Amino acid sequence: MSKNENTKIKKSFNDYWNSYSTVAILILMLIVFSILKPSAFANVPNYIKIIEQSSIYILLACGEFFAIILGGIDLSVSSVMALSGVVCAKLMVAGWHPVAAVIVGIFLFGGLVGAINGMLINITKLPPFIITLGSQSIFRGLTYILSEARSVSGISTGFTQFVGGKIGGVIPMPIIIALIVAGLVIFFTTKTKAGRNIYALGGNPQSAYFAGITTNTHQLVCFIISGICASLAGMVNIARLSSAEPNAGTGFETYAIAAVIIGGTSFFGGQGTVWKVVIGGIIIGTINNGLNMVGLSSYYQQMAMGALIIMAVTLDRFFGASKNK
Amino acid sequence: MNSLVEMRNITKKFPGVTALKGVNFDVRPGEVHILLGENGAGKSTLMKMLSGAYEPTEGTMVANGKEFPRFTPKISQDNGISIIYQELSVINEISIQENIFVGKLLTKRIAGIPVVDNASMRRRTEEVLREIGLDRKPNVPVGQLSISEKQMVEIAKAVAFDAKVIIMDEPTTSLTTEEINHLYEIIDNLKKQGKGIVFISHKLDEVLTVGDRVTILKDGAYVGTYPISEMDEDRLVKLMVGREIKGSHLKNPNKDYGDEIIFEAKNITRKDNKVRNVSFQLRKGEILGFSGLVGAGRTELMEAIFGARPIKSGEMYLYGRKLDIKSTYQAVKEGIVLVTENRRETGFSPYHSIKQNMVQAKGLKEAKFNGLSGLIHEKEEQAVAEEQAEAMQVKCASLSQIITELSGGNQQKVILGRWMASNPELIIFDEPTKGIDVGTKSEIYKLMRRLAEQGKGVLVVSSEMPELLSTCDRIIVMNDGQSRGEFDNADATEEELVRVATMA
C-alpha cells in the first residue's frame, strides 16, 4: 500500500499554500493599502514604522508560538507584558541600577512567570487554556496592584533612549530586538534537539512520551520562553511610551495568537515555522497601520483582525497540512 | 423450536482480509448462546452484523421468519435485538431513568404541546429495575453507580423496550465474583421470560456455567455449534485453538543459556494494580515471550518496565544493576526501549520525517538536562538514518518523507531503527507484527533472534500463539495482572497456553 515507487511527489496547490500562504497574505495587503493610500502608505519610512509597530506583536507571537505548537495556548502573554513593564518601571523609578541589571532581572522575571504557568499545567494536567485564562487575570490584577492602577512614569532616560531609540538614527531598536529574538527562536526550533522534541510533543504527546521525551520538562520550557518573550515585549513597550501603563497590551493575546495562526502554525500542534510567524506579526502591524491611514477607527481594526483569524484558520482547514486531522 | 434470529452462511470480507467465512449462528427463545473464540476470531464482526453496523458480504439474515440480505440498525431494533457492549454506553451525567429512555423520551400533551412525561418514565423504570433486581431510585445519576450497576442499567434499557435478543459482549470482564453471580441470576430470569441471550466470552469456566449452546469461531472460520452439555474445558480449548498447529515450534530452542541474567524483575506491582507481583528473569541469549488474553496485564507490565507507568513496589535489575526508572526518558538512558503495540497512538511522531523519527532516541540518549541539551547535526543524522534504513530495509523514496506516508510495515521498521540507533540493552516488543505484512513479519522475527544472539535482552508480547511458539525460547502466561505459568518452548502448546490464560 506504500507509494514507494512515486519518488517525486507532485506539488499541489495545498503544498504551495502551506509554504507561501503567509507571504501571500502580506503581499496582498501591501498591494491593497498601496492602491488605497499610495503616497502615505507605500514608502520606506512607513514600512519601517510598520515593522516597528509590529515588533511587540512579533515578540509576543514568538512566545505564543511555543504554546500553540504544543497544541495549547497562552492567553496570559498580554498580562505578562503589562506586569513586566510595570515591574521594570517601578524598579527603575526606585533607583535600581545599572539599567542592564534591571533588564536582565525582568528577563528572568518573565521566565519565572512563564514557569508558573508551565508548572500549573504540568501539575494540574488541565488544558493550558484554563490555566492561562486564570493566570491572565491574576497577572493583570497584580499589575494594577503594583502600579496602584496608575501609569508609572520617570523611567530612566538611558533606558528609553536605548531600547526605544534608533540605531544610526534609522533603524528602531525594537525592530532589532524583535529580529534578534526571532533569530534565536528560529535557531532553537530548527537546530536544537529540544526544539525538535517540542514539535514531536505537539504532534502526538503520547508518542513523544513513549519515545522517551520528557514531556513535562519540554512543556515547561515552552511556557518559560513564552513568559520571557512577553517580558521583552513589555520592556519594549514602556521604552516606546516612556511610561508603564497597567492596562498596556489589553487584548494583545488575540494579536499574538492571530500572528501565530496566520503564520501557518497548526492550531492542533506539532506543525509551524517561526519565520512565518514573524511575517504573521508584521501582517498584524500592517493591518493596524493601513486601516489607520484609510481612516478607519481601531474598532474596525479589531473586526478586521477577527475576520482574518477565522479566514486563515478556515483556509488552513481546507488546504493546510492539518486538514487530515 | 423457532429461532428469534438466525444468520445463515455468513461471510464478511474487508479489503484484503476475510474476517468471517461461512458462519451459522442463531438464537432461540430462552437460551444462552455462547459465542466463543480467541481475540480476533471474528466475534465482534459477527455481532456487528446483527446490530446492523456491518453488511455481510455473503449470506442471509433471518428475523421472525423473514429473510433479509442485511440488517440495518432499524431492522435490528424492530426485531428486538439489543447489544450491551463491553465499553458501556451509559451517560454518566444523567439519571438512570433518562438513560433508559434516552432518545425515546415519553411525552404527554399539555395544552397540545408535547412535554416530557417524567411520571410515566419513572413508573416504567421502577418496574424494570425491580424486575432485574437493581435497588436504585430512577433519578440517581448513573455516574454514581458501580460498573456492575451501570451494566444493569444497560440491561434494564434492553428490557424496558422489550428486547427479544440481548447480546452481552464479555459482560463479566470488570465484575467481582459476587456481581457475576448476580448477573447470572438476571440472565436466568431473562431466560425464563423467553428472551434469547448471546453471551460473548473467552473464559471457559463461565462458558460452561452459564451457557446452553456454544458456537465456536476460529480465525473467522465457523468451527461449529454444540450443546454445552457435551462440552468440557479440554474440548472447548481444542475446538477453539484447532487441532492443526499453525506455524511450528522453534527449531532449536536455546536451552544452553549461560548463567548470565540480563534483566530481572522482582515483584512488580503497578500503582493502579493492573500488574501485581510479577517476577521473572531474562537470561542471556534467550527470547522471552508473554502470552495471555487482552487485558491480562502484559502490555501494562511492559509499560511499567519502560517507566511509562508508575510502579508501587518491586525492583528491576539490568545486568545485576538496580534500576530506578521513573520516566521513559530514564528507561531510554538505561538502554531499555519499548516497541509499542499501537504505532499511531504511541509509536512515531506523525509530522516528522523518517530521518527525524530515526534519530530521536539516539538524540535523547546522548542529551543531558532531561533531554534538553544538544544541537542537531544534519550530516550525522543523515548517516545514522541511512545506516538504520539500510539495516531495517525500509522501503522509501527518501529519508525526508513524512513517516505517515509509509505502509504499516515500513513504519514499524522506522520505529525499530529508531530504537536500534540508540544501542539499547533490553528491547521489548509489544505485538510487533500487528497489522504487518508477512514479509516484514519474518524480518522482525530475524531481528529479534539476531539481537538475542548478540546478547541483548528481548521480551516479546504477542496475542498470536503461533508467533510466540515459533520465536520464543520461554513463554510466561499472564492472567489477571499476574504471572500464572512459565513454559519452556518444547513444553508449550497452544492448548496449554490458552488453559492457563483463561483459568479463573
List the helices and strands and how they pair.
The complex is a heterodimer of chains A (325) and B (504).
Chain A: H1 13-36, H2 38-41, H3 44-69, H4 77-93, H5 99-124, H6 128-147, H7 157-163, E1 166-167, E2 171-172, H8 173-191, H9 193-203, H10 205-210, H11 215-241, H12 252-262, H13 274-294, H14 298-319
Antiparallel strand pairs in A: 1-2
Helix pairs in contact in A: 1-13, 3-8, 3-11, 3-12, 3-13, 4-5, 4-6, 4-11, 5-6, 5-11, 7-11, 8-9, 9-11, 12-13, 12-14, 13-14
Chain B: E1 5-14, E2 17-27, E3 32-36, H1 43-51, E4 58-63, E5 66-68, H2 73-78, E6 81-84, H3 96-100, E7 107-110, E8 113-116, H4 118-132, H5 147-160, E9 165-169, H6 177-192, E10 196-201, H7 204-210, E11 213-218, E12 221-227, H8 233-241, E13 261-270, E14 278-283, E15 287-291, H9 298-305, E16 311-318, E17 321-322, H10 328-334, E18 336-339, H11 343-347, H12 354-366, H13 378-392, H14 408-421, E19 426-430, H15 438-453, E20 457-461, H16 465-471, E21 474-479, E22 482-488, H17 494-502
Parallel strand pairs in B: 3-10, 3-11, 6-9, 9-10, 15-20, 15-21, 18-19, 19-20
Antiparallel strand pairs in B: 1-2, 1-4, 4-5, 7-8, 11-12, 13-14, 13-16, 16-17, 21-22
